[in-house]
Amino acid sequence: MFLAWWVYELVRWRAGGWRVRVIQAYRFALDPSAAQERALRSHAGAARFGWNWGLARCQERYAAGGTWYSAVDLHRLWNAQKKADPALAWWAENSKCSYQEAFRDLDRGDALRGQDCDLAPSGCCRHA
């Protein structure tokens, strides 16, 4: 069983120009069948693979030229790599969104450069 929380914050304007913050939370559980659980785990593994693959490409580029790939650049590289490497034939078993979101997360992490963050252990990447 998978448990998850979904929390959002809503700002409502009241008469008289003042506002009220409303924080709403929902707790829900997923009870997938065995096949659905395999698919969920497969998609999570694909996202993890995409993150690690993209991070390796970004670290190589940063070491060579001091620049980082964008999410779009990573997706283009991924499209070329998955077609060229027969060992990556399994990629089509998962949604393309699994990989795209991992690349977007890496891109968002790049926006944190110069801020205090714990994206990687010391010495692992440019955030250290």
User: What is the typical, i.e. mean, pLDDT?
Assistant: 79
Whole-number radius of gyration? 19 Å
Order of helices and strands: EEHHH
Biggest sheet: strands side by side, in what order? 1-2
> What are the segments in which pLDDT stays under 50 over at least 5 consecutive residues?
121-128
The proportion of residues forming helix, as a percent range, comes to 40-55%
* Class from helix and strand fractions: alpha+beta
Number of helices: 3
Largest beta-sheet characterization: 2 strands, antiparallel
**Beginning-to-end CA distance, first to last residue:** 36 Å
Tell me what portion of residues adopts beta-strand conformation: 15-25%
Question: Looking at the structure, what is the overall shape?
Answer: flat
